[in-house]
Protein: Glucose-methanol-choline oxidoreductase N-terminal domain-containing protein
Amino acid sequence: MNFPEKEYDFVIVRAGSARCVLANRLSEVKHKKILLIEAGIEEPDVAEVSAFVFLLTGSNIDGCIDRIQPEQHACQSRKNRECMMARGKIVKENQRYYSQGGYQSVQRFPYIDIITDILLNAWQELGYELVDVNANNQLGVMSQQTTSANGTHQSTNKAFIRPIRRKRKNLTIKTESYVTKLFVNNKTKCVTGVEYTSGNNRTQLNRIFAKKKEVILSAGSINSPKILMLSGIGLREELEKYGIQVISNLSVKESPGSCNNDWFCNWTKFYFYPRRFFNDTEESFEIGVKPFSYYNVISVRPLLLSTKSRGFILLNGSDPLWGAPLIYPRYFISNPDLDVLVGNMKIALKLFDTESSKKYDFTSIDKALPACKEFEFGERCLSATVILTNAARFAEVLSFGLLQPSERYYECRL
Structure:
């Protein structure tokens, strides 16, 4: 079946996790022509090694490492109060809840470290049950599940695109193609196509049109608002500064908080992962030592699953098109974000009171980061909770905790 070269039914911008699935499903309809545009390169074999994920930060399969703008309530111990934010850039057991015979495999890695069992037991001592968080109960603890097959990472590209890429003639994939703007019909306000560059040639602009169906913009929380603003969709005063024709005067630069329910706002995910600790506390958080088999501490990191704080994205004043956008996360500007996070750090500290931790002499490193030196550790300042053990081992544990209304803590700047 032949199609006009530059006309498609669906144009999908970026080939991340959800977009690869979408391209697979849409291309099942044989008479529909699908284009998937990705700024990154083809997924290399090294991406199959899950332990290499942090080694690849800053490589050509990572979109870039952005430094967020200085924060008022976060990143206080980082240089210039700026944290880093990495962006990926590649074409990337319970029968009741996991479909059988599907494209993507969900497994646990075959090797389970002794530290994993210790931490699982410690959480259970605190009253958290062993659960499958991908099933019907998310309040509890489990050994981490991954999208992997036989010990190798299985991205949605590997699972959903590679098996059908050479078989479906109606699916076209363009890698190393950077979308610079959307074409919008001034009358209907409908997006009709995209403009993009290929390879290292930033001067030649190509045009692709989706005349029959639609353009699906899913370039992530950073690039999506950037592309929208470059296309004339955003705050009028922001766009007019750069001579961009205003198509729609919308506040797309703001990233809305997703938490509208106080009960749900209290949900937190804990991650446990290895680090190499040095005598200088600040240096330990700035320097990553690999491979992880040579770690000497386990870092406990609570992650809010939903927040009320809102951030925003601005175009780069020196180079709106190719410059990294200005990222203003504005962490902890709204309650109860900070209260919940600090409260859960307090819960994590209770792990040291369990028999499982005492048996293996787990202790916390209470050396304060520079921004916290005036406070007593564990009372008014919690920059990080780190488990120290004499054994150099690795833990893969996920736990979900709910901070009760009575367990709220204040006056902390992370």
Remarks:
- The first strand starts at residue 10 and ends at 13.
- The chain has nine helices and 22 strands.
